[in-house]
Fold these 2 entries.
Entry 1:
Amino acid sequence: MRWLRLLALPLVLALAAPGTGCTEDEPYVRTLPPVDEPPFDYGLYCDAQGQLVGEDSAVLLVRRSSHLERVYADSQHGETRAQVVFRQLEDTFVSSGLYIADEVTSPRCLALPLPGCKPDWSFLDTLLPSHGPGAQRLREVMGTAFTERARVRGMRNALITSSVSALLAITVVKGQLKGAAAEGSAEARATLAATEGRTLVAATTEAEVLEARLAEAEAASTEARYPAEPSGLARFRPSLQSPPTGVTAGDTLWGEYVAYWEQRYAEVTGQGPPSARPNAPKPPLKPKPPLKWEGYRVMRADFRRGTVFQGSVGQMLRRELELPEMVRRLLRGMRKPRLDENLGLKHPGSTSLTYPDQFTVDEATIGPGLRVRVETFSNKSHDFRGWSEEDIFKQVVADAKEAQVKYGGIVQVRRPGHPLFGQNVPVSRVHLVYDDQTLTPRLKQEIVKELDENKIKVEIHFHHVPPAP
């Protein structure tokens, strides 16, 4: 489509970074003449189905602030034509973010001093003058695409974060959103958050999701820790060469523990910043001291058990994908189910992501005029041996409520390439899948009854991990 090329062209050629080979095209963007804003009419930009028409329609739409925000507002209220139009704009900004990431991570660019490999997003002030939620949404999807591609191509996380923060913070620095934020606008609060170093980014790689979940598990661990006072903590410093009894010097887990202990010691003593990635849970204001070795081993064993269980549930669901619709147990009622794991979701007004263990969408329900059907899964592998029934029930209720909050309601898919990327969709059903290894048949019945009595709308299942061959 020619409109796509015309809109992508100023976006991808307006880099201010020297050495990208794009400077000769910058004047096209920076000297765009002002545009008038006639009374709004969809006919100025698209046909009755929402397909953009005319060579300049997309450029005119993004440059006319009130018209752009009108289309975005209509799309958020479910107007099909508006959703089609805005999705085309999002696709273009995604493509441009990918192109820019390729440019600034090319061998030609990476050979230059570091500043030459940072994009200058200020050209968007001319091309995209609006400071409303629709424009910010386009900046966000552009930053998301840039983040994912730049990370894959080896750009350092700190540079990615600073680049995307600059992209999202441009309108804030100019002071255009402060009034809206004071009035409680969720979009404005999310934008202002960018100036504090937080970014709205896409679902990260599997390895980074695993890292973020391990950080959550460590933070939530109730195992014994060393004293928090730096002076008292230093005398417990572990050594790679002096492992505890029963552990060899080359033990992989011991090496990980020593590195973890040193990192946490630096955080507690203020000698180094937390090393969590941008998407990882933010550490508390006062970092916790490190777990003791035995507690760390327990935490890692629990984490590994949970990871193995998640993999087994994923395999079970993938087998269901191959079954006829009427035979499926968990994915029943889906005509064309698609399964993704560790997919990042964002809730309205939030600047952080949540990662359901599995996310399914019925692709037969995606399209204009259709109500999309998505379902999320939370996998739990507790070792309930030795627990009282009362404590088990309390844990189950807590797990169910957590699943509702983290994976239910209205969510926005943040993984580029997913058919629902960037869309706000209601979760039709939240599933909670338990490892039944330490649960008796009677206890499983009582757990289902407990959730019913608490009126928690989460569908519960029990799964048995088959023994390793």
Note: The radius of gyration is 25 Å.
Entry 2:
Amino acid sequence: MYLERLKNLKAYKTETTPCKVKLSSNESPFDLSEKLKERIKEEIVKINFQRYPDPHAKELKEALAKFVSEEENLEVSPENLVLGNGSDEIIHLLITVIGDLKNPVMYPVPSFPMYQVSSDVVGRPKAEFLLDDNFQLTEEGIQEALKQNPDIAFFASPNNPTGNSFDSKLIMKVIEKGIFTVIDEAYIHFSDKENFLKVALEYDNVVVLRTMSKVGLASIRLGYMIAKKDVAREIDKGRLPFNITYPTQVIGKIVLTEGKEELKSQIKAVKEERKRVMEEISKIPSVTVYPSDANFFLMKTPDGNKTHQELIKRGVLTRNMSHLPKMENCIRVSIGRKEENDEFIKAMREIFT
């Protein structure tokens, strides 16, 4: 009887089929350089593994604040940050602490499934609304969701799994209604569109989420929230103690300082490969390629399930999204290294020739 509430819970699922080329999880295709790894080794051996890590991750926060400030040309301080064991943990924290648990969590579909998963885990109602056929927000959908009186709204922009950025004017309408609004910018490093960081630093009801997982550090699970100092301070009260491990703090600090140019170079390479791969796949007459501001893109084929399986037969793992609303026959493809992308392009040509 104690687990009754979890019986119908739909857990987060990922694609784990073993393949030579893995283009399914939106990870960076690039590992850290040997030089950076050597620096990390030097610092890791100094850790007192029997001790708890710094509960406030002071040095990591300082490095992260400086990294974001330089990247955005805005003043971001450590007091503007809340750190999470991946941005997933912060999503769960926000759904748990913001507003009344009896009031809905608002988000569009299709979008990042953790909004639904975390809402269900805490037993919170959901105000879901559909994107249009171009995977954009609609004023009608937003208005219908707002009628359910949500306390918190999530917008992933660029959106996962569609890859596109949302209309900022429509998001601002939700913000102006006074709804606590979370802009999930996990993929913002691959976008040239304007972000919401400045808004988050000015408004009491807006926060921005980002992560290091998409730019080369998925293994250490480091997400972060940016908000006004007083907002960040209050939300940080609900954070679990010692949630950022000592190794994560050490690795994160080194990469954000000594490795920041390496990260920028890798991001640039992904954006260039995205353009090339999307152009090549667009040449296949029966495949539709959707615009992307992320480190992946979405394509639609005549039979998504069959295409997904045929790619696996050729050693290429992608993510079949056909089970989601509005995404019948759609496949999400992460951008890999050039040689991996060439394998994918070759496989697609074989399938559709």
Note: The mean pLDDT is 96.
